[in-house]
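User: structure tokens for this one?
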Amino acid sequence: MPRILIALLLLCLAQAAPGASQGGLLTPLPNRPAAPDFRLTDMDDKVHQLSDYRGTVVIINFWATWCPPCRAEMPSMQRAWTQLKKAGIVMLAINVGEKAATIRRFHKEYPVGFPLLLDLDSSTAESWPMRGLPTTFVVDPAGRLAYKAVGGREWDNPEILDQIRALKGSRVQPPG
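Assistant:
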């Protein structure tokens, strides 16, 4: 098992411990660093490259089927997606290190309408500033990391939705 998967497993299990609560709002990232680009396929073999979404707010969720908080937040992510897609906001969930067959089984139990991307070798996860699962980033229209959420959230919380929607009109200079 790759070292990153072991570390992510340990952190995911810590977040799933009794008494661990879901987080609150999203944490703003100072200086809004550039989001690392990626090129991954979804469950329908469609290629998604982050740079293709420039000009759009994009929610990037890193998750795994074996992660209890990841599983717990998926229904609220779907509810949030139902509201945010109307505003032209994109949601992508990047599965870290699992095979397509595993994700297909998960999808039957937790159907979602947003793309589930395959990071089979965990190389994309390793290029992002994350230490545990689930971790979610919100990328602003200029391709910069605006917000981060470590641990599960209730993604349809109106305050979180307002934080995300507020980025839609932001005019931050593009990276580099």
